[in-house]
Every structure is written in C-alpha cells, then in structure tokens.
Here is the input.
Amino acid sequence: MKFKRMLLGFSFLIGVPVLAQTPTYQDVSKPIEERVKDALSRMTLEEKIAMTHAQSKFSSPGVPRLGIPEVWATDGPHGIRPEVLWDEWEQAGWTNDSCIAFPALTCLAATWNPEVSHLYGKSIGEEARYRKKDILLGPGVNIYRTPLNGRNFEYMGEDPYLSATMVVPYIKGVQENGVAACVKHYALNNQEFKRHTTNVNLSDRALYEIYLPAFKAAVQEGGTWSIMGSYNLYQGIHACHNKRLLQDILRDEWGFDGVVVSDWGGVHDTEQAIFNGLDLEFGSWTNGLSDGTRSAYDNYYLADPYLKLIREGKVGTKELDEKVGNILRLIFRTSMNTGKPFGSLGSPEHGKAGRTIGEEGIVLLQNTNNLLPIDLNKAKTIAVVGENAIKMMTVGGGSSSLKVKYEISPLDGLVQRIGSKAKVVYARGYVGDPTGEYNGVKSGQDLKDDRSEDELLAEALAAAKTADYVIFIGGLNKSNNQDCEDTDRAALELPYAQNRVINELAKVNKNLIVVNISGNAVAMPWVKSVPAIVQGWYLGSEAGTALASVLVGDVAPSGKLPFTFPVRLEDVGAHKLGEYPGNAGELAQSTHAGDTINETYHDDIYVGYRWADKEKIQPLFPFGHGLSYTTFAYGKPTADKQTMTADATITFTVTVKNTGTREGQEVVQLYISDKKSSLPRPVKELKGFKKVKLAPGEEQTVTLTIDQKALSYFDDAKHAWIAEPGKFEALVGSSSRDIKGAVPFELR
Ligand code: BGC
Here is the structure.
C-alpha cells in the first residue's frame, strides 16, 4: 500500500520522474467535494461496485490500489460491539475489545439533558475510534408507539421533540471523533414482530409530525454522516430502497449528503437499490442464498447483479457515482481525516460518564411518605429481592449486546455503597431468564435455580419480614419476548409471576421499594400497595453504582419519563384501535411465511400522551413525570409579548425555586396548545424544556423561546407546515399532567 502511494506521488516529465503534488483526493486541505470528484475519476467500474456492498459482516472494501481504506462499522448504540468473525455473527474472541456499556437510550432520553447526551456521544465515539470503527450503528430514534415493541430500549421515547432534541448532541459527540453516527432505523420500524414483512401505511401528517422529526433533526442539526434504512416496508416498498423515504424526503427535502446504509439483510431488489437512494448494502446472507452460506458477498444485490446490469448496458453509472461519492465523502470525514483523535476504550472517564448518565436518567415514579432515600442511620438490614438485582443485562437483546470490561450489578452496587453500614441480604424471589450468552459472549453467571415458585417466594418473604427496607429489583430482561430485538413482548404485565412476589412482599413489609429494570412500560397492578417505585432502565457497566447512589440519596433523582406508562394496553392508541400488530392474524392461516402484513397507523398523530390527552385517559405515570428528593415551586409563567407575528419568536419566563433542604434538578417543560385550528390537533405538544440544578432555597429564572415552527401542523393536502394564526396557550409544567401555569398568546 505504501509503495502504491509512493508511485502516485510521482509524475513523469519527459521521462524524468519529478515529485508531484499529493493527489487531490488525498489532500486534506482541498474541499471535500473536489476530493470526491478526483477519487471517482481514478476508480474502475469494478472498484466502484465493490465499495457499495459488504466484504465481511461489518466492512466494505475501500480501494486498496488508491490507498482508500476499508469502511468498518460496529454496533451501537450503547457500547462498542465485540469484534465478530469475518463471515459470522459469532464474536472473534479478541481479548482487547471489552467496552464500557453506557445506559440504554431510553435512559439517556429520560435525562432530558442535551449536555449529558453530548457526553454519551463523545464517550461512545471515543470507544469506537479506538476500535478503528468508522461508522457507529446508532443512535436509534424510532418512536415509541406501543410498549410491546421489543426494541424500545434502543430508542428515545414517544415524543418527536424530545427525541429530536436529544439525538443531535449524541451525533455531534460521536462525530467529533471522526466516527460517523448512523441513525436508525429509518423509518417506521415501530415493532419487531414480523419486522421484515410489515408494511406500514399512515397519513403524511403522522409521518411528518410524529415519526420523522428526530431523523430530520439528526440530518439537519446533528449533521449525521450516515443513516440506516429499516427492515419494514412503507407504502409497499422496503424502507432500504424506498424512493419516497430516501430520495424525496431524506435527500431532496432535507439535503442529506451522507451514506444510506441498509439494515443487515434489508435489501430485496437490485433495481430498487440502484435507483431509490441506497448507498451501501450490508447483509446476512441475502439474494436467496440459504442461511449460513459463507462469503456470499458477490451475490449481494449491489454486487455482481449490479455489475451485470451495467455491463449489459441496462443501467448507467450515474447512480453508482452518486453512491460511491457518498461513501468517499464519509471516508474523508472519518478514516482519511488525519486530524481525528485516537480515542480510548474502557477508560475510567467512560465509566464515570456511564454512571452520570445513569444517575440522571433514573426516574423516581412514586415516593409515598418519602420512603426514599434509604436512611442509612436507621437501616440495619436491607433485603434485596429479585433476579434483576444480580443478572447481567449487557449480554442479550440482539445487536446491541456487548462484551463489557465490567458490569456492576444492582446488588453489588448496593453492597459496595451500604455494606459497611447495614446488612444486605439477598433472595432471588423468582426465576426469569437464567441464560446469559449472545454470539459467543458469555455472561459467566450461573443463574440456574430449580426451586419452585413457592419456595422462592417463601425465602423472599422470610428475608423481607425482618428487614428495615425491602428493595425488589425486577422487571424485564433482554431475552426473547422481553426487551429484545426481533421479538415483541407478549403482554404489558411483568413476566415470571413477579406481581405475586411484589404483592406478597407488600403485605409483610411496608418499606417496600420496587425498582423496575426495563426499556418499556410495564403494568403495575400493585401500584397502590408499594410506596416507592423507581424506573431503573438498563444502566450498563455502572448499573449498580448509579442505582445505589440514587437509592441512598447521594444523588437526587432527576429523570423524567420519555414515554407514558399506561395502566393497560387498551389505553394505547395502537392497541385500542385493534391494529397492532397488523393483519398478522389473517396471515397466520396463510401458507406463505414471507407474506406482507399490512399495518395502518389509525392512531395517526395520537401517539403516547397525545392519545391519553385526547381520550382523557389517566395514565399510570404520565410522559414527563419524575420526582425528586427535594421540592420545587413554580412562579407564574409570563410571555414577553401577547401577540406574535409569523417570523418572530416568543419567550416564556418562569421562576423555579428549590423549596426543599437538598440540591436537586428539575426539568421545566413547555407544552403548546392550539386553541382553534382547521385541522384537529393534540391537546398539547412538547415544544421546549430545560433542566436546571438548584441548591436548597435557590431560585432560577428559566426562559424558553419558540418560533412559529412550534405552532405548526403538517397539512397533508398542501404538503406544508402551517402555523395558523389564532389563539394558543403555553403550558409550563413539571410533567405532561402536572401543569403549573398557562400563558395565552396569539399568532397573527
Ligand atoms: C439490526 C441493526 C444492527 C445490524 C447489525 C440488524 O439486525 O436491526 O440495528 O445495527 O443488525 O448488527
């Protein structure tokens, strides 16, 4: 490679070699578009085709002859996936690829803190760079439409504004490292059940108002260098080669100049892949090749079949040059960016970052009589019950599964923090998923337990009876039909008879704390008999330390829910309207396994709290909800004007005071309500928020500014965003159901 580069560095003048300038494509001082053009002009047809598809599970070849490096991708989005074999999903068995696992993206969204999101992106970007990866497959921003979606834990919740705001700093942080973020899964991959064959139909209004804003922000504000097409279909065409999504919206409307990567095996048709905006095909044995066939890359849709069509003159090379141009641009931004940092893996700083994200994302859902934080001066014995107190959660769940440098379990975290002050006793309580292996990475835990449900319960009750506090740590895990890729949950209820255990614990000890570990809402039929409830997410390497510091009050909780906890499934639009999961029932009778399932989003724009507000349903815990160990008093919100003109902004001001005795953080939320509109509108929509840290007694003035974008709806008929003059109301609150004050204003 060096030799080739040297040759390129010479030109020949009347037979005498003289040292020439660096070729344009290698010259970092030249504008990137010139470099792209120059590189393209030097490449053969075969070299170009080679760049548009994988050469291994996670890489594409580059152009060795020109010294253009390979492109290496990695999962994403919670940590850097262990190296896998060239041709297999199995881990390669390296001894130097153990990472820090950061909290799942639902937890990040729950921080409602863009600075924390930047810290996340920067830290994971550094890990990716150290591992010499050019594309990080994440973050995910599919909207949380049903609590059954097995992959919600990889996304940022139900609200387009929140996820759009939180995704941008993550991308910037990653890309500061010369690593491309790859935002996924574009678009409408809102369930895992039959994800390859579900055809989504919805109104343009729902598409633009609910499902696209986070992707649009990722492109236009985050400047993401790549995006991943999703597995599902939209309007009858797979998203990985869907002209409307990729060409019309992503490139033409949003001006995306990065690489569209297919989801692995998401391509189904060569011509569509050529013409509809896909750039780079990755796969899992595609093109009719049977599962497990090795080195199938030449058969990929954008490999030999593409080359053949060009050679036969059936398609031209314009699209090929566009694809390769996009890939070259990414290479110049990443691996051929000579100014990029070197990164670091598994560093103490990354562990600390993971812990901070976890501490800020944990949500205190309920705290009757201020049971929490645990009073270490009074507690002599603390009983910890539940499998999730000990189970490693970084192994499993699908492609986001990790091989971690370490993972501190909740039980270990609690023992470390309080073991010298109080006795911690542990009882399993129930057996859920004792397995712990993913693609050759083993958790190393032996969680097999053959005791009966009654025996496990009896042990837990015995421990609980004599304890000062009982902490039940349960919820879901990352096994099939829990929170796991490729499967959806079967029900909203907690699995493995956990409700019985919780109910019985509540009877024997009134100081019961339930910590729910999940990336999804769960039903809580025992909500009235459990004083303290904490949403604990999947917290990664520092799970136990983050959780312990919140439980004992080293840190006051400040997370707010990024999605609604419904009481029951029927309180969710997609379920109430009976459409989830599409016409799968009819197809169960069908003999064609690959038949498409049609799913129309009749819930339209009414997703999450928008549905609950419209139907006047009281959620179990509303969107934006989260308590602290201190209290906050809001002043009366005001606006800087009563009437706003179309191109102006309006600023709302509210004071927030910490009225308790300890430091805490509050997320001030701004919802906009359109009082009268030509089209039906949600009761209110989140359009601004700010997280503030306040010392005891401290008061701060929070300002939130919006422009007419915050007042607009998407009009299908006009294909345009419309801010309709008329009366609006700004609602300022501590959650979507705890509005502290309203300010009327008008748009002229
Ligand atoms: C997932 C992607 C992932 C890819 C590579 C696919 O099955 O849907 O999110 O990035 O595999 O592991």
User: Anything to note?
Assistant: Residues 75-76, 137, 184, 263-264, 399 surround beta-D-glucopyranose (CB under 6 Å). The longest strand covers residues 664-674.
